[in-house]
Design the sequence.
């Protein structure tokens, strides 16, 4: 009976995992399929065509929203990565356990806090700041950037700190003893070792900013519209398949980024194991 259960369990677990993947990715595959539909029907597939991809690029409002979203995501990734690396190094070098514990708890708040609470709180903060400087239209690109950096920053910190813990600080100290300046020693010795964590945090910041809706909904203004908000505004009426085409391109882009990130992490881990041996 035990042998029978051992043989049966892997099959059940594989079936369970397969059902999860079907449940998660079947809607995306359907969306990708109907983005190639030759007609505007969202439930009858009439034939393959790239018509809706052409229509997508003709929609100037959607293209502008896409440009806004990509620009915001790139800026969020860059700012979050720089601040995250500085914060991670500062926390790692801190000698006070109480301070380090308090800062790590604070870092986790934007991740654990419901997005709607974060969005409303930041909106109230920006409106209050605008009232202090007598500016009513304060919501826009800069408020979106601050809000996105706020929730993306912890992911960079939590990806860099484990890499710093794995690094042998005696190598850094040896570089200082040999006459290397602290900043140069950091970029020449420490940076290459934690680069995989930095890249992971940067890519995560980019993808999180790219598809954020709830926080963006509360902190954006009429002058700067992101793609998730534009798509949401279209749900009040019938969504055309050109939005399927746009969503498909975004999904493929993020998938490629994640694959490249995993490849980079894998190579970094193999390199670390070879150097350890």
Sequence:
């Amino acid at each position: 009976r035990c042998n029978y259960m051992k043989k049966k369990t892997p099959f059940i677990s594989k079936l369970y995992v397969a059902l999860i993947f079907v449940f998660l990715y079947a809607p995306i595959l359907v969306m990708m399929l109907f983005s190639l539909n030759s007609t505007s029907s969202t439930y009858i597939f009439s034939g393959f065509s790239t018509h809706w991809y052409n229509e997508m690029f003709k929609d100037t409002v959607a293209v502008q929203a896409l440009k806004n979203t990509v620009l915001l995501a790139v800026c969020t990734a860059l700012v979050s990565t720089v601040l995250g690396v500085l914060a991670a190094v500062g926390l790692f070098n801190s000698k006070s356990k109480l301070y380090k514990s308090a800062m790590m708890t604070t870092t986790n708040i934007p991740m654990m806090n419901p997005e709607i609470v974060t969005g409303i709180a930041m909106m109230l903060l920006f409106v209050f700041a605008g009232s202090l400087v007598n500016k009513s239209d304060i919501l826009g690109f800069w408020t979106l950037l601050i809000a996105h950096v706020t929730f993306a920053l912890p992911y960079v910190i939590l990806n860099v700190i484990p890499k710093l813990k794995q690094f042998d600080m005696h190598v850094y100290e040896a570089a200082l003893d040999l006459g290397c300046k602290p900043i140069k020693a950091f970029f020449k010795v420490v940076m290459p070792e934690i680069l995989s964590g930095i890249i992971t945090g940067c890519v995560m910041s980019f993808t999180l900013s790219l598809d954020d809706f709830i926080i963006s909904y509360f902190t954006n203004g009429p002058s700067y519209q992101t793609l998730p908000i534009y798509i949401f505004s279209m749900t009040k009426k019938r969504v055309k398949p050109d939005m399927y085409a746009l969503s498909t391109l975004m999904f493929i882009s993020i998938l490629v980024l994640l694959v490249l990130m995993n490849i980079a992490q894998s190579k970094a881990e193999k390199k670390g194991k070879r150097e350890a041996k």
In short: The mean pLDDT is 83. The radius of gyration is 23 Å. The CA atoms of residues 68 and 226 lie 6 Å apart.
